[in-house]
Amino acid sequence: MGVGISAHEVEQAARRRSKTIDDGLEAERMREARTVRVLMLGLSGAGKSTLAKQVRMIHEKGFADKEKAVYREVVRQNVVMAVLCVLEEMDTHGVQFPTEEMRNTANNIKDRLKMSDSYKAVVDMRHSLLLLTSQKVVKDIMDACIDVETVQLNQYLFRSLDKILSDSYAPSDYDILRVRQKTTGLHEILFHFKGFEFRLCDVDGHCTVKKKWLQNFENVSAILFTAALSSYDVGSKDHEEQTEIHDAMRVFQTVTSYAGFIRSPIILFLNKKDIFQQKLKKVPLTVAFPEYTGKNEFSEACQFIQQKFESFVTHAPERLAVHITNATDTPNIRSVFDSSLAVILDQP
């Protein structure tokens, strides 16, 4: 016959199970109490993805070798886009290479780079590409281009072309920061700061921000919104006679006025200050804001845009902190980002 289990033993087993559950719940409660969720928002092209890369470099271990192998192809694809961009710009303005040999080389490059595996072809075309990008006419067409951001990236790629197209090329952290890459969906970045676990939820900039959609994020500790100062002359895709900075302001107003975020700290990064400063030399701020009467110089123009954004935070405006940033400048982002995290932790 089997030995029966006494009522006392059954009770003890039940107590142990209960304690295990209680301990688990308490551990989860304590972990949750030290978890800070930050929602990262901003339109596509504002530099939010670059900022997310900076966070990984500053607060994580950067990029693993497998990721760098992927980014190697991304960098080379950026080279493809840069070369095609310059050649198309030359066609648009009727500019030609001075010799027939160079014109034939350019046509061959253009045809090959339009194929689907062009990011592989650039390595085989290394000599031709180095020759093409060293031509004075290429430098001249880039100098004349109004799109300062594209020009800066293309110049960076062309200066580094010999390294990028070498067989042993492994992208540096700065290479990874500089290149453009489409991101979709929602990504979460986890890191620790001052004993707290931070979870940054990076939302695709192509997503339409609606109040119904924002309900999914009501438990966030703070909002980090990125807007590109330099987008003041980029035409809006949805609103004629307006620019992307107006789109950013509309989204910002929607987010900051949403009832679920009414008490949340808001960190606003007015990004791409370096490109903005360069653009102001060629394009007046009045193309976006006819009412602007100040000088077409960085400090005054920047203050005007900042005040525009600040005007949308009508409830508890003290919860808004604004920073003027350059997302590719690691020391700048380290200082600004860490001070922003400290502000979030200081909230009651």
Automatic annotation (TrEMBL):
Keywords: GTP-binding, Lipoprotein, Magnesium, Metal-binding, Myristate, Nucleotide-binding, Palmitate, Transducer. InterPro entries: Gprotein_alpha_su (IPR001019), GproteinA_insert (IPR011025), P-loop_NTPase (IPR027417). GO terms for biological process: adenylate cyclase-modulating G protein-coupled receptor signaling pathway. GO terms for molecular function: G protein-coupled receptor binding; G-protein beta/gamma-subunit complex binding; GTP binding; GTPase activity; metal ion binding. Pfam families: G-alpha (PF00503). The keyword Nucleotide-binding applies. SUPFAM superfamilies: P-loop containing nucleoside triphosphate hydrolases (SSF52540), Transducin (alpha subunit), insertion domain (SSF47895). G proteins are composed of 3 units; alpha, beta and gamma. The alpha chain contains the guanine nucleotide binding site. This is Uncharacterized protein. It comes from Arion vulgaris. The gene is ORF55233.
